[in-house]
Design brief:
It is a single chain. The protein has about 210 residues and is of the alpha/beta class. About 50% of the residues lie in helices and about 15% in strands. The chain contains eleven helices and eight strands. The strands form two sheets. The protein has a four-stranded parallel sheet, sandwiched between helices. The longest helix is centred in the last third of the chain and has 18 residues. The radius of gyration is 16 Å and the shape is globular. About 45% of the residues are buried.
């Protein structure tokens, strides 16, 4: 049930904050503001220094709460296992790697590989991937989901890169499983960290508007 519950939370909360910090401390500060702003799906990228320690601290702090902490920019199975051992609830990579998939399956952890073609998507499905990351999302576009759902109606897709306030409704309407949001959350936060919270609240409000709440 662990894997199912994680995927359900990712889908229900819908917005995934992709956090790239220049330091461990900055990443933790970003996440604090993001959670205050209302996004509860957190992806800590391994381009962040001491990413595994960030994941560990967040996983410990928010255990038992409706916050899902995962690892992003995972390039190999060794990094995937490090992330999982430090508490990552899901693994995201910019590419598809069957060895990462094997490791995630062993620990009952969702793996969201970056895919940009139907061939990559079908290869991912064959090894048990439940949700693929469409990357780069800004190049593929929201209609890509509709096109892929023609021959592959069963595949769930989450765009990462290129999701904005202006086009989020398109991704939602075309059936995205969730959407990844990165630098837009930390925009203009150099001098005021609370700007991250404001940016996050704007995305959360936009999603509520789209859902008709």
């Amino acid at each position: 049930m662990n894997k199912f519950n994680t995927l359900q939370q990712l889908h229900d909360n819908y917005l995934v904050a992709v956090v790239r910090g220049q330091s461990k401390e900055q990443a933790l500060d970003y996440v604090e503001q993001i959670i205050k702003g209302g996004i509860l799906n957190i992806e800590i990228t391994f381009t962040t220094p001491q990413a595994e320690l960030v994941i560990q601290e967040l996983s410990d702090k928010y255990r038992g709460e409706n916050v899902v902490v995962g690892a992003g920019t995972v390039l190999d199975d060794v990094t995937a296992r490090i992330a999982i051992m430090n508490g990552a609830s899901y693994i995201v990579s910019p590419h598809f790697d069957d060895q990462i998939a094997t490791t995630c399956n062993l620990y009952n952890i969702p793996y969201l590989p970056g895919c940009g073609s139907v061939t990559e998507i079908t290869n991912a499905l064959k090894v048990g991937v439940d949700v693929v990351k469409l990357f780069p999302g800004d190049l593929l576009g929201a209609k890509y989901i509709k096109n892929v759902h023609g021959p592959l109606p069963q595949v769930e897709m989450m765009p990462s890169g290129g999701v904005s306030m202006d086009n989020m409704h398109e991704w939602y309407e075309y059936g995205a499983f969730a959407v990844g949001i990165g630098s837009a959350l930390t925009k203009n936060a150099e001098d005021d960290i609370t700007q991250v919270k404001t940016n996050t609240q704007n995305f959360v409000q936009k999603l509520e508007d789209i859902r008709g709440r």
